[in-house]
Amino acid sequence: MKEVTWKSPSNIALVKYWGKYPVQIPANPSISFTLSAAATTTTLKYAPGTGQIEVYLEGVSTPSFLPKIKTFLERTAEQFPFASTLDLEIHTSNSFPHSSGIASSASGMSALALCLMSVKQALGLPVSDFFQEASEAARLGSGSGSRSVFGPLAAWGTHQDIQGSHDRWAVAYDDVAEVFTTFQDTILLVDKGEKVVSSTVGHGLMEGHAYAEARFAQAHTNQADILTCMRNGDIEGFGAIVESEALTLHAMMMSSRPYFILMKPNTLKVIEAIWAFRENTGNPLYFTLDAGANVHLLYPKSHKDVILQFIDSDLRTFCKDGSYLCDEVGQGPKQL
Ligand code: PMV
């Protein structure tokens, strides 16, 4: 068998994607920091065949991944028509623990899409824009995965202020003050359990949601405003938008029908401690949340020492087994 390998990072949204139209078209634009340490490495082995697929996670055969991969290959059949004429072996591993509650779908689908693009190239099929096509394919596996293809930031969804922005793929974004190209993201593992509600179900609940239209309009405004803040190096303005976006995301969950809550009591304790710390010390420490209970702490690299001290002394106690992961803005995927 021949093989290709890509390592693709996870990403953390600053303006959140929540709500979509078929197939994987975002209801509003979003923008994210591409991460550095949290990543999926995937080796795709291929040989002429009949579309047989085997998947291995950390070296162990994992047939439970097959339905998602088959759906992905069906959706991308136009881009990767050769997939059904090959036998594929997918070997994937994550840099973060499987039980950490960190979603691997964005980095995983991005790594797989990049591998398939490399196979496409190796087979001599026409490729006009490698990374744009990879982002479009990744989107069909995991919406937020479209953003993992680019660093240091990536924007997905048509937005008036981002040239070339598109609903079908993400674009790289770097028109930001230097401080934002080295921002830190320390992920507090408040709860490591499986999500009680999948993001697919959550997106679906935005259909007919009482606040949907207002939320989608707000995301456009927040996207415009956060770009201005990041261009001007306005960390305080940036932080206010990011925290509001995180709380709005969870407010949408709490006000959907059926309603649900993904935050845990310790999520709120961390948020309160961050606000008190900021008030008392003036340090630029902000938070964001994914569709889960874990808290992402965002801050400039220049404040790393004082903030890591604060995490150890005051926040670690709210983490499962005292565990957290240190990450920072990264440059995007790498072929290995
Ligand atoms: O890409 P999905 O379908 O897993 O949805 C991701 C949704 C959020 O992580 C909550 C927000 C985002 O923009 O990444």
Kindly describe this structure.
This protein is of the alpha+beta class. The protein has 2 domains: 2-176, Ribosomal Protein S5, domain 2 (2-Layer Sandwich), CATH 3.30.230; 183-328, Alpha-Beta Plaits, CATH 3.30.70.890. It is built from 8 helices and 14 strands. It has helices at residues 66-75, 105-122, 130-141, 199-204, 212-232, 235-254, 265-281, 304-315, and strands spanning 2-15, 20-21, 25-26, 30-48, 53-57, 60-61, 86-94, 153-156, 170-173, 184-188, 286-289, 295-299, 324-328, 334-335. The strands form 3 sheets. Strands 1, 4, 5, 6, 7, 8, 9 and 14 form an 8-stranded mixed β-sheet that branches. Strand 11 (286-289) and strand 12 form a beta hairpin. The longest helix is centred in the middle third of the chain and has 21 residues, at 212-232. The chain starts with a strand and ends with a strand. The model has no long low-confidence stretch (mean pLDDT 97). Bound molecules: (3R)-3-hydroxy-3-methyl-5-(phosphonooxy)pentanoic acid. Residues 13, 16-18, 30, 103, 105-106, 142-144, 199, 203, 249, 290-291 line the site of (3R)-3-hydroxy-3-methyl-5-(phosphonooxy)pentanoic acid. (3R)-3-hydroxy-3-methyl-5-(phosphonooxy)pentanoic acid binds at residues 13, 16-18, 30, 103, 105-106, 142-144, 199, 203, 249, 290-291.
